[in-house]
Amino acid sequence: MAHRCPFPFLSARSRLRQPARPQPQSAGAASDPAAAAAPHPPGAMEHGSVTDSTASTFSIMDEDHTLANSVRFVLNQDPRVAFCGYSIPHPADNKVNIRVQTTGDPAKDVLKDSLQDLMLMCQHVRGTFDTAVTDFRRNNPTGMNIDQNKKK
Question: Where would I find the DNA-directed RNA polymerase RBP11-like dimerisation domain in this sequence (predicted)?
């Protein structure tokens, strides 16, 4: 089954895949093998089965309900998703667990598509907001006078 996005401004033509950005390498990392071998804590981690790629839990570090609920909303709009939910294990932890079960596609791919959709939605909202601000400033060259009721 082909992925059909429920948002009209996210047409198949607008789903541009961004090339992966090369990770900057520190000056000492190339010459120091110990620095290159030092583990770097990941921002996200997948916990799933080796035999079943349709169900996984993704742990995302340093995030909260803001991102998790947005991702959950977009994932639940996808017809390939059978179940999606998230939890925060403890209020003191800056970690979100997002559980994704799909109808057949790999959960990792569905999550990537949903994150791409969410990014495009945010870009659309930002563009609409910027256009509205520009239009307001063009139509009100003096700007907003918040002291209109004050007498001079």
Answer: 56-126
